[in-house]
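Contributing: when you submit paired examples, paste them exactly as shown. First protein:
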Amino acid sequence: MFKHKEEKEKKEEMKDKKGILQSKWIFGIIAIVLIAIFCIAMTPVTLQNDTFYTIKIGEQITKTGIDMQDHFSWHEDLAYTYPHWLYDLITYYIYAGFGMTGIYVTTCILTVILGISIYIVNTKIAKNQLVSFILTAIVIYIIRGYIAARAQLLTFILFVWIIYCIEMFLKNKKIRYAVGLVLISTLIANLHAAVWPFIFVLFLPYIAEYLLALIAEVTIYRKINIKILNFRIKLLTKSGKHVDKKLALEEKLKDIITKNEKIKVKREEELKNPYKIRFTKNPNVKWLILVMIICAFTGLLTPLGDTPYTYLVKTMEGNTTQNINEHLPMTIIDETEALSAIVVILAILTFTKTKIKLSDLFMIGGLCFLMLASRRQITMFCLIGVLVVNKMICGLFEIYTKNGLERLTQMIAGKVGYIIMIVVMLALSYHFYEPKQNDEYIDESSYPVQACDYILENIDLGKARFYNEYNYGSYMIYRGIPVFIDSRADLYAPEFSGKKEDIFMDFINTSSIGEFYEDTFEKYDITHVITYKNSKMNMIIKETKDPNYKELYEDDYFTIYERLNA
């Protein structure tokens, strides 16, 4: 009778587990499909300026290889570092095979992979599907302005998986996660060398927690004193003298060890339930440090020489980061999403009993600092910081509810819940996709499409030296027109170009009318000028009716002049 009852209970338990597992699979599949649709809806149709030079550089690599020289500016002998040569090459092959549509579809696919990666990694680490699903949608929404056909989209995906590999390696020290870290590091060094050093920033919070735990342990347990006492006792034992002194030292050592045992018991109890910050001395961190050292050598596994090691340093030494919008410090009052995220994190830590791992605190604090220092780092704050926020939210529910998240997830995991999920996500997806469904791949208000047609038909490019502006120089390169400057800012800075002239700052000063445009044009022997119709320079030339400039062409957005005294 009892045996029959036990068998029945086991069957019911197995049935419940099977039902829960099936429910998780269904939820996961629906979540992934909805995330994919949402990611496609958030992907812009119109291409960004960097995409144009990426295509041409990829094409150039197929012809001349990586020769570390620029081929698209009319400035002579500019050195170019090809910081994302592999991405450029891949993009060119996609463009050559499928045109602009191929690039757009590829961007959609990469955005979908990014969204699914965020969801899977969050689910694996934070152990909750519902919160991971909601946070993934929020992250994709916040970083929507950085979704473009650029190398950074690939590295976003790889950074998410770096965190996964680190977390899993620390958990079980399996070699496959170490190999994954080394492979990802090698890929990033070739796909986007500029961000390669950021890999090592992601290792630091875990190493810092381990080192602090090690220092605390040495201090608390007086391990140095114990080693010194053992050494002195060993010396006295060998000499056979000072027996009384030896006995006194042995007694002292015994007292310290006894005290340490009491401290250890007390400390273990405290660590089980700390006030706010949990930290442990994970022995696997020692091996993680070794993996990080190995990753440091993967920067050599590129055809770029020392570029992965020097690119960021040179960039920080120059003026480009102080004049490009996405590199400027964040004005937090203008970034509602970032401000909201910071407020939520501080509120959870301040007003609840939720605890946070020391490594997570270091991670979120470091990412917050980077985001405030450079607004483009909001992407890393979201992509990596979401894991910390996810853990905190799950911890919050564990403290204040009994299986609250599980119950809520099970409520959603039903026909009504699934219908609500699907309707809401499809409505949001349509809301974001609808305004851009008629967008073109190339925005003629931003890029001089018709003006370039005129140039190619009427101007001898072998003799012309165009002055153009930063934002559309890449499109001119795409059309085969040599440029004064384009969005490869590093190319035009003396730290990279090998020239004495700071072409980038000359452009900044001229475009802002901080320097008289004629002085710059004389310095560089400019023959033609293409400018936005509403630019300050064009307004001055028109208002003053400058006799040195003959208008050759004008449309709704751009004007072309010939400089008569060239």
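Second protein:
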Amino acid sequence: MFAKLALRNVRRQISNYLIYFVTVALSVALLFAVNNLSYSDRIRQLAELSSDMKSMFNMVTVLSGLVTALVLSYATGFMLKLRKKEFGMYLTLGMTRRNIQALFACETWMLSGLALIAGMGAGLVIFQLLVALFSSIMELPFSISAYSVKGIALTLAVSVGLFALSSLASVRYLKKVTISDLLKEEAAERSEKHPVLWCILSVVTLAGLIGCLIITYQNLMAAFHNEDGVILLLWLATDLVMIFLAHFTLSRTLAGMLLRSKRLKNRGTNTVVLRGLSGKMTVNSLLIGALATLLVFAVGMSNVAFCEKIFSDLSIKQDCPYDVMAMFDLSEEHGVSMEEGIQIVEQYSPIISQIDYQLYSKGETTLCSSIIGYDLMEWTDKYMPLSQFNALLTGCGYEPLTLKDEYLLFTTVQGISDVDFSDKSVTLNGKTYSWAGNSTFYPDFARREYMYFIIPDEAVAGMPVSDVCAAYTLADHRPDAMAMLKDLTYVQKTSDGEDERCDFAIQEAWRLFRNANAGTLIIGTLYVSTVFVCMALAILSLKTLSTLDDERRRFAVLYRLGADGKTQKAALFKQTGAFFLMPFALPLILTVPLGMIFGKVYEIWNFAGLSGQKAMETAALISLVLAGIYALYFFITYRIACEQVVCLGTETRGAGTRVQ
């Protein structure tokens, strides 16, 4: 009996359940896709490159599961609130609480089961799309991937667990709630008190938000020089707080202040729209602030993820500019000699060109003593002859460097690059060389050295060689890098035990490693961000639909005053759109300055030009995705509201008679 009644109720309430159904189905689809990706053969193979990949996917699943559980609880609470008068009537007519609990649980499980099936079906497609995205990031050919039994089982287990928790929460509520609580009317909405005060607070919080964003940008730029990220993180947290406060104060005052404009409110149906917004914003200001903060966090993380991929692509040639690079410190023992390494490399691809170069050192600290902590790092002054450095530069397509009685510091560490060596000169072979500046612009030809000094050739005459190096260009630029790396790696005994070591850098291995990390970050962040955005918009939709009774009475009055269906729909469109737009506008707008900021970051990292364009393209892509999700939820919410609110005549529907 309960199953038939539950099925009838689900059919009758299908429009009200639609947002719940779509949100659950999307959550299950994304969960299914990511779980299958984390257990796929391709991910297991690439996990050898990045040990954090599997843990990253597991963390994403847990985090998104928690967020989904919260929203499902909220959605279930909304459905209870929507139908509490109906349940109150059931109790009054003699049904037991156990009967009502069973009825509502049966309805919830029916809808959740349908959403689970739909979500799993959509997940089949989304999984292949994620595989295609990951293959594109890894620059590997795409092929249809098999689905994982473990991934499917994990999705079912997590989904059923979330549904069970949500159902238990509703059963507990129905067990304790009184009949009077179920039947009583909701408190009427009140206009916002002290509108002038809230207006002042809105201006103050907006100004504070702009100031915090400017200071955060300044600290971001400074962090690349002093490498102190603690202050930057504090300001980022402050930005999120200010975003919450700005939306909280604006939502409490905006509609009320607009109502004070006689010219605006007397135009068309603006009075009805603004009064409806005023009540919603007052009640839901905390929710709007929280959702806006969540959306900004999702936008920021999406930008970071995509820009990580751009940075990876641009930085590979900086970190390992040649196909294979060797560096041997002569003061250390090596398990694989340079000659043995060359033989191993040629097993995978012929070497078509080779550039030999060296680092020289007398063990002095004349120059590096300007670096704080140099003694703890046991750094000494190491020099590379200008002719060898230029040979490496021209092989990478750079213009040769010119030095005249000068030395240039090269480093990959921004903090070292900021050190002033203007008071430091060095005398070698009876000739004094002055400081020509510091550079992080050129590729890194000595990957194990934090810094070295480029100096004219005559300065190193007779100086001991400290490191023997070579750069190789291969006939096949993309050999089997993982197998080559494995053959070149050896185990070295240290004071702490045994450690794996390789004296060769392989560009293709760097590319795979960077792309694996970037791909994991992008997919994980996209998943979390999409779930966050969907959850935020689902809550907005449910909050909009929870006030339909009040809207129905308001629009009935509007109908009696002569407003036709078209006029009512236009008013409802503006009211619903404004409510949706409030927490969504700032996150969408922020994609542009975030793109500009990342473009500036690339310039600091010497990736100017194309990098700025890529950053803005990324920002535009994220904006389009956000706008698409927003449009989906807004359209569903607006259509449901139109069916329930717009008055066209007198009709009896459901529990009572209403003007339609």
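If you have annotations for the second protein, write them as plain sentences, like these:
Confidence is low (pLDDT under 50) at residues 650-660.
The first strand starts at residue 324 and ends at 329.
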